[in-house]
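Q: My labmate handed me this sequence with no annotations at all. I'd like to see what the chain might look like in three dimensions before we decide whether it's worth expressing. Could you predict it?
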Amino acid sequence: MTVFTRVPNAVLTGWSNKYMLGALEKLTETKLGTENSNFFLTTVLRNLIVTIFENVENHELPFYLCFMYFLSVNGVPAPILNSNVEEIPVVQWNGKPVAITLKLIGITQEEPGNPHMLETGRALATLHHISKKHTFFNARAYSISWVKDKISSYACIVPFGKRYVFEYRASMQLFYFLAVGYKRLDDGACHGDLFKDNVTFEQLFHMHSQRLSGCFDFYFSGQEKLLVDVAIALNTWCTCSNGILNVYDTVKLMHSYQVIKPLKLREKKKLLVTLEVMAFRFWLSRVGGFYRKKITDAMNPYDPDCFRFRFRLTARELYLKCYGSVYQDGSS
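A: Here is what I predict for the chain of 332 residues:
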């Protein structure tokens, strides 16, 4: 991506002095994310992340920051605000809120293996388990009203041959929200964007394995059905580019998840349709930026078609064959 907003070194020095961050050594622009401007900030004392929120209002920021702090003190390695003083280090630059958080250790895994699946499922289950104690509320980012708004906005941008997908999949989204049993699914604060590039792992040399050391980018989190978070994780961690679910990865992730937070029968029955619904929702979230880029050439966003094949979920039979015993239980 292109960094939308830059911060002069003089301003960073002022923030560093105010919040006792240490003398500045290096500032590096990152390619992480598509919604905010992110920088790696290195000082003599610590490594930090500076995030300038391009699409987040001031009144929305406290939920994200408090949620991350709540998770970090309850066992989930989430970013926390860096502060050596009582005042929370959230500042303004060009009318946009800026947060300074500690940089998490570890690296991301574009081709995760079995240990990464187990760790991710365990962390997601832990997040869902402790989020039931969270008393803050934030509306879900990708609601049905958001879907309708995006479909109408992108109708003139998307090539004509792909527009039929909007109408068909939008009706599926509406049916999903109105279907019997949706309101009975477990509700809680969700991550909402648990992609591979939002999780880091650290090598444990004495055990010759890796552990999950960081989980970040909580700026799509909000109150949602917990099954939605599970579907997002399966779509990004366990699905091949042709839309087929990798059976072994799915079993590993779901097993480690259910050890901590077992899925209820009603959630098992709705898992497959939730996978399709969330694949379309993320495809829709990337469509606008991708085709605007072709018009304006202003940024380099993710290609949305990586989700397009996941609408059909051609792995339905494979999935049911290996992990589908949960559905057989529901049919009795």
